[in-house]
Amino acid sequence: MSDRLPPLTALRAFDAAARHMSFAKAAAELNVTPAALSFQIKSLEEHLGRPLFRRLNRAVELTEEGRALAPGAQEGFEVLTAAWRAARRLQDNTTLTVTAGPALTAKWLAPRLYDFARAHPEIDLRISTSLRLVDLARDEVDVAIRFGQGSDAGLYSVSARKEWMIPVMTPELANRFPTPESLRDAPLIFDESISFLDPPVDWPTWFRAVGIDFTPQRGAHFSNADHAIDAAVAGVGVVLGRRPMIIKDVIEGRLVMPFKTAVETDARFRFVCLAGAETQPKIAAFRDWFLAEIAKTAHISDGLTIVHVRDIPPK
Length: 315
What we know:
This protein is α/β, with parallel strands linked by helices. The protein has helices at residues 8-20, 23-30, 34-48, 64-91, 102-109, 113-119, 171-176, 203-209, 225-233, 243-251, 281-296, and strands spanning 53-55, 60-62, 95-100, 124-129, 143-148, 155-159, 163-168, 188-191, 220-222, 238-242, 261-265, 268-274, 305-308. The chain folds into 3 domains: 8-90, Arc Repressor Mutant, subunit A (Orthogonal Bundle), CATH 1.10.10; 94-161 and 268-296, 3-Layer(aba) Sandwich (D-Maltodextrin-Binding Protein, domain 2); 163-264 and 298-311, 3-Layer(aba) Sandwich (D-Maltodextrin-Binding Protein, domain 2). It is built from 11 helices and 13 strands. A 6-stranded mixed beta sheet has the order 9-8-10-7-11-13, with helices on both faces. The mean pLDDT is 92.
């Protein structure tokens, strides 16, 4: 039996029909007539010498041979599509697609994009806000800004500065709650977006870092960091703010850091792209700008006592 592959168009027709289990839907996906799709599948079956579908009255089902072929056909077209997209991206020297989380985009990235656009008018920057872990080899994304404690094996990755959290509040609330001890009675805000960190960096952890054994039970809980920060700006309460999320509001005076103890975590923001892609001018330009922007606000750490979470005694 020959291992010569059948025509690609016939395999494409089979893949679509196997995924939809419908010749009509597969034909619509491929923008061909049902008769044309049926002809392609029939030619594939003749090439194999066995039927791939059982034609029923109002449906189709895969034969044993069809079930054997379907996973490989689907995977093969996915790999081929990803490779084609990667090849096309290499030809595009002007469009740069960056994905980042909604909170970082709102609180750090978006306010600075004008400066990047002004410095690099030749680059058409596109921002995709998502917490989904994209596949840089498959998805049409050039750069991902990721946060966490995980690794980026097989990718080019550059870590940002140390990530720490510190209580921030409006100046008015700072006057009402001038000491760490007074925060026992303050309205606290909980940022649940960092609940996955291990060890945790939360209110009980910060209180232990300043020598206070206190586990707050009440307060407003937010699943998004930017919403938690916005609530603090509105005077709702005191939030344990993450460095990049609070920088703009602190520098511009909407929030203050009345206490000087911050808790550092192992987690970092990382600039990530495919290995080798970092040499592309558009990606190198965005990386250099990203790191330079972070360096501009490094002074926010001046005068702080930054305690690593692993150095804080557990409860």
